[in-house]
Amino acid sequence: MKQYDYLIVGAGFYGAVFAHEAHKRGCKCLVIDKRNHIGGNAYTEEVNRINVHKYGVHVFHTANKKVWDYLNAFTTFNHFVLSPVANYKGELYNLPFNMNTFCQLWKVRTPAEAMAKIEEQTKEFASITHPANLEEQALVLAGREVYEKLIKGYSEKQWGVKATEIPAFVIRRLPFRFTYDNNYFNDPYQGIPIGGYTRLFGKLLKGVEVQLGQDFLLNKKAYLNKAGKVVYTGSMDAYFDYCYGSLGYRSLRFDHQLLAGIDNFQGVAQMNYTDPAVPYTRILEHKHFELGKQPDTVITYEYPTTWQQGDEPYYPINDAANTALYEKYKLLAQQESNVIFGGRLAEYKCYDMDKVIERALTYFENER
Ligand SMILES: Cc1cc2nc3c(=O)[nH]c(=O)nc-3n(C[C@H](O)[C@H](O)[C@H](O)COP(=O)(O)OP(=O)(O)OC[C@H]3O[C@@H](n4cnc5c(N)ncnc54)[C@H](O)[C@@H]3O)c2cc1C
Q: Which atom of ligand 1 lies at the shortest distance from residue 43's CA?
C-alpha cells in the first residue's frame, strides 16, 4: 500500500488543478513545491495592500468558456484589460499595433491611410519571399520604422541574441488591428482574480496536504515510492538529471520596488521599453492590474537573463535543436509508467495559464 494515491510535484496551475480534481474524486494527494509558497509563477504577494505579481505580469485571458467557468467557481475576476504602452526613447506608443499606434507613428487617421503607409514601408522588402529570421520577417510584415522602434530592441533583449539569429516563426503574423482598440488580447474572457492569485490557489488546494520548501529531485526515489502515481510539473531535463544535456531556457530577474507615498508611477500596468539601450524590457505597476486606489505603489523592473542550471527556467526556447532534444527526453518519460509529466516546464511549451488548466482537466476527462 502506498501512502498517497498522487504525489503532485509543483503547486502551480497544473499541480493545483490536478490536486483539486483528484481530491474531489476521493484520492489521497500530497502536493510538494520547492518554493516556499503555492501558486507557481502566478503567485502574488500582498505588499501594502497591493497584490504583487512576483514572477512577472499574469493576466488571465481565455477563449475557453469551460476553463473560465471553472475558475469563476474559485474567484471573481475584475474587468482589467491589458493595454500596454511601448516606450521608445521617450516616445510612447499603444500596443498591440492598432490605429492608435499608427496615428502616433505617422499621424494617419483612417484605416485606409494606415494600410497605405504600411504598404509603403514594406514595399522595399517585397523581394524577401522566405524570411530567414525575425528581422526579415518583421521587415516584410511591418517595414523598417515599426521594426526599428517597436520590435528589434525588445526582441533582442528578450531572447539575448541579434534579431537575425531569432527564428522567423516567433512572429509569423503581426497582430495589426485597424481599429482604435488597445486590448492586447482577442479572447472574450479576461481579468485578474480579485484578492490576488494566491487566494485562488488556496481555494483550489483546500483540504489537500501541501508541503512547501521540498525539492522532489533531492529525494526522488523516496518520493516515487510514496504514491501510486506521481504528477511532475518541473523541468523535463532536470527530472532526468540532464542526461542528454540541458534544454534551452531564458530566465528573468525581477527588481521589485515599493514606492511609498507615490500613488501612481507610470499610469499603466505595463510599459514595454523597446530601446536596446535600456537594460530592462518592461516596468510593471501592480496596483493598476487591480484598478487599485492605494496611497503607495509597487513597481517591478523585468530584466531578461541568460539561463544556467540552477536558475529559474521561465521561457522554453522552442527552436529546432531544443525541440529535437525534448523529443529524446520524451522517450525516456514514456518509460516512467507511474509518472504524469504535465504543465509548462514538463511539456516544454510556452503555455498560458488557461491552456495549463485545460490540460490538467483533460487528464480527468480522459480517465473516465
Ligand atoms: C514572466 C511570465 C509571464 C507570464 N504571463 C502570463 C500571462 O499574462 N497570462 C497567462 O495566461 N500566462 C502567463 N504566463 C504563463 C504562466 O506562468 C503559466 O502558464 C503557468 O504558470 C504554468 O503553470 P504550471 O503549473 O505548468 O507551472 P509553474 O507555474 O511554473 O509551476 C511549477 C511549480 O513546480 C515547482 N517545481 C519545479 N521543480 C520542482 C521540484 N524539483 N520539486 C518541487 N517543486 C518543483 C516550481 O517551484 C513551481 O512552483 C507567464 C509566464 C511567465 C514566465
A: 29
- Residue ranges of the chain whose pLDDT lies below 70: 368
Does the C-beta of 53 come closer than 6 Å to ligand 1? Answer: no
Q: What's the grid cell of residue 316?
A: 522554453
Which helix (H) or strand (E) covers residue 61, if one does? strand 60-62
Instruction: Look at residues 222, 271, 211 and name the one whose alpha carbon lies nearest to residue 87.
Output: 271
The pick from 58, 216, 220, 230 for probing ligand 1's pocket by mutation, whose C-beta has the most ligand atoms within 8 angstroms, reads 58
Whether pTM exceeds 0.90:
yes
State which H helix or E strand residue 259 sits in.
strand 249-259
Q: How far is CA 77 from CA 64, 72, 174, 225, 287, in A?
A: 15, 7, 29, 40, 15
Q: How far is the CA of 3 from the centre of ligand 1 (A)?
A: 27
Residue 273 pLDDT: 98
> How far, in Å, is the centroid of ligand 1 from the Cα of 262?
31
The rounded distance, in Å, linking the Cα atoms of 266 and 323 is 39
User: What per-residue confidence (pLDDT) applies to 319?
Assistant: 86
Ligand 1 mean position, distance from CA 11 (Å): 9
d(CA 94, CA 271): 10
Is residue 234 in contact with ligand 1, taking CB distance under 6 Å?
Answer: yes
pLDDT of residue 368: 55
pLDDT value, residue 171: 84
User: What letters, b where the CB count within 10 A reaches 16 and e where it falls short, cover 230-253?
Assistant: bbbbbbbbbbeeeeeeebbbbbbe
